[in-house]
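Lecture notes, unit on protein representations.

Consider one protein chain, 402 amino acids long.
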Amino acid sequence: MENASIETLYEISERLVKSVKTDFTRYLYDKINWDCDLIGIKGARGVGKTTLMLQRIKQNFKNDPSKVLYVSLDNLWFANHTLSQVVDYHYKNGGTHIFIDEIHKYPNWQTLLKNIVDEYPGFNVVYTGSSMLKIDYHKGDLSRRQIMYTLKGLSFREFIEYETELKFQAVDLRTLLQTHSEMALEITEKLKILPLFDKYLKYGYYPFYKKDLAGFPARLQETIKSILNDDMPYVEDITRATKQKIMKMLMIIAENVPQTPKMSDLYAALETSREQGLKMLSFLERADLLATLSAVAKNIKYLSKPDKIYLNNPNLMYALTPNANTGTLRETFFLNQLSYVGEVNYPKQGDFLCQQKYLFEVGGHKKTFDQIKDIPDSYLAVDDIETGRRNRIPLYMFGFLY
């Protein structure tokens, strides 16, 4: 490999690092143990994984940029070169860190990462991959060698900071339930919260909205297509016909969310079997395009029919459905944000059960406790109110969990 050839990668890396802004960083940035030799960051396309890595490089390698290199594996350079060649060259020329984007697009990536860790002592690797990324324990035991993190889209708290530069602390669920009144007073003294919340539901989950707000819905639709057409085939062995059925499944569900699905009708519409239908549903959920709700804890080894299906976040509803239902938007937001703190289940009474303890009913400002009265640890998540009292909590407050 010619030195002039690889220098192209260094030039691209330096250019991207120089252009990235560091005035706003995601919630995950300070949670990552950057000293670990092998770090994985997975998440849906468009949530900011690349920016996160470039920010780390810019902030931590100002005094010695030659020690670090950023590469994206969808670069055409890798059509006739290997990542192993890059690592070897970088290491032998004093490099100590490499940041690798789109790892799922590289053949046998798990074995490659294992070999890098084993053969280049003191060398640090940070990589990103699709939210569908799976660790195959038969292809090199990465579980003991790495720390894996998941990056979600912007929380409502982050969106507020991104839009207004006002910073509020994230809180755990128990603290939120106990102190929401005081928190809401502090927030509403500084800004008009409900108009911001409405904007967040329309376009605030994906950070790329700032690049072209008017074109955001179209770009989000293109992102969805890229997930299904470009990312999914690298992670799952699927045919072109299956990809088309998965897209059709997504659109059928988008037009009917939330639903207690009659899965046999869905399978018939897709001309597929129950087993294949459940697999496609799982693909969409792992791609962060759908969210499913079940009465019992999910078992990753055994796919089963969910009790309720939602789109992953409200932005997807606006992008995929012509008339987004207000009640569904509320529930979709609530489920998306609450899932950060633990598994959420479908209860016998109420809308959502979190951590097998906290019961929630979601609705508008006229919502009452009639459906969940006398049940311990039960709460209302209420839209269109700025402040709450006792177990009646403003819906937007659940956007402060991360």
